[in-house]
Amino acid sequence: MEFTIRPEQPSDYRETEQMTREAFWNQYAPGCCEHYLLHIMRECPAFLPELDLVAVRGGRIVGNVVSLKALLFGDDGNEYEVLTLGPISVLPDCQRQGIGAGLIRRTREIARRLGYRAILLCGDPDYYSRQGFLPAERLNIRTADNQYAAALQVCELWDGALSGAAGRYVEDPVYAVAEDAVAAFDKGFAPKEKISATASQRRFQQLAAMCRAAD
């Protein structure tokens, strides 16, 4: 079945948060925090409403992506404004059907029109390499604590957009959510079983460990 992509509206917020919870539950840790993160991101100064998109199929929201402003602190002493993509979510029964790819593609189109240089994220290279991303290390881009991280991916929005922009990528502090705040917010949703040691959690832990200090 086809899907459409449109901007998220305030009337969508609760449905999108519920969908995001379903998409991320037990994926990276027992339970999830992404629905709470989405909830607080909308009030963040770095949030870009133009890049808050939902995918709709059959009258229901089946996917969502958001992006925030971020910075590259260049080794040349300059600061480069870029974007952080995520969370991006698709309902489990709608995954592997091109919805996530469609949301990323639309995000790239809009971000390019807005004049941004690049999009960065932390995610599985096996997936994001198929969506136009490459390891940030190839452009000598490191994490905020000056580490090369296997999960850190970058997509330039035009050829050479980050030429000479090697440096440290710093995402917005909103991503560092507090566990007690997540737990309190989650009480407003139907209870779900938390499961440990899933295959996706093991993959996440593997990628998180694949870091090395820059020389």
UniProtKB/TrEMBL annotation:
PROSITE patterns: GNAT. Residues 3-155 form the N-acetyltransferase domain. It comes from the Bacteria. Pfam families: Acetyltransf_1. InterPro entries: GNAT_dom, MshD_Acetyltransferase. This is N-acetyltransferase. It comes from Dysosmobacter acutus. The lineage of its organism: Bacteria, Bacillati, Bacillota, Clostridia, Eubacteriales.
